[in-house]
Specification:
With 190 residues, the chain is of the alpha+beta class. The chain has 2 domains: 10-44, no CATH class; 59-189, Trna Endonuclease, Chain: A, domain 1, CATH 3.40.1350. The chain contains 5 helices and 7 strands; from the N terminus they run H-H-H-E-E-E-E-H-E-E-E-H. The chain has helices at residues 10-30, 41-44, 59-72, 129-135, 183-189, and strands at 76-79, 89-93, 96-107, 120-124, 141-146, 151-156, 165-169. Strands 1, 2, 3, 4, 5, 6 and 7 form a 7-stranded mixed sheet that branches. A hairpin with a 2-residue loop joins strand 2 (89-93) and strand 3 (96-107). The longest helix is centred in the first third of the chain and has 21 residues, at 10-30.
């Protein structure tokens, strides 16, 4: 529970505060040994095998996560129930309906050996340029979602007019102002 959540609701803030108080009290009384109460100490020394399926991208769950994030920010929305819909979520902004396509916000492998002190992502919105030309007119925003670090980026479709994908820097780089932000939607308001 001490993990930083992206969703900012009052219940989660209250739960984090309570668990933080409990954790600090346990640390003060028992030191860091309280983390292993009821666990065989030898288990803590075993090598861990990371579950590879835990962070795999799942489109349906990504749409649900993005919907939850939008709802927590106070947006009114509905999700598409059609299998081949060009958009995944409809959001009401100033009495207008905008269409959002949810895609994978993946780590950009081109930056694997980069010395940048932050993560670089990319959103592959379209498979081919033919698909891009056909489907871009049916969406207003592309939202990328990453399961591994629970991050997202929201970009206007104008950024994809002649491109299939876009790079998003976590900090100080290309599209960094749209990382973990609904700035693109707020700009639509104006």
């Amino acid at each position: 529970m001490k993990h930083k959540f992206l969703i900012k609701s009052e219940k989660i803030k209250r739960a984090r505060k309570i668990t933080g108080l409990i954790a600090r009290g346990m640390e003060k009384k028992f030191g860091l040994d309280y983390l292993s109460f009821g666990i065989d100490q030898s288990v803590l020394e075993l090598p861990r095998i990371e579950n590879s399926t835990k962070h795999k991208y799942n489109q349906e769950i990504a749409i649900q996560c993005v919907s939850d994030l939008l709802l927590s920010e106070g947006y009114q929305l509905s999700r598409s129930s059609a299998n081949n819909s060009p958009y995944d979520i409809l959001v009401v902004i100033d009495k207008e309906i905008v269409r959002i396509k949810v895609k994978h916000l993946q780590f950009d492998s081109a930056y694997n050996v980069s010395t940048l002190p932050y993560q670089v992502y990319k959103i592959d919105a379209f498979e081919t340029f033919v698909e891009q030309k056909q489907k871009i007119k049916d969406v207003d925003f592309i939202v990328g979602y990453n399961f591994k670090d629970l991050s997202f980026a929201c970009l206007n479709k104008k950024q994809f007019e002649n491109k299939k994908s876009r790079v998003v820097h976590e900090k100080e780089g290309q599209n960094s102002t749209y990382f973990q932000s609904w700035k693109a939607l707020n700009e639509f308001n104006r």
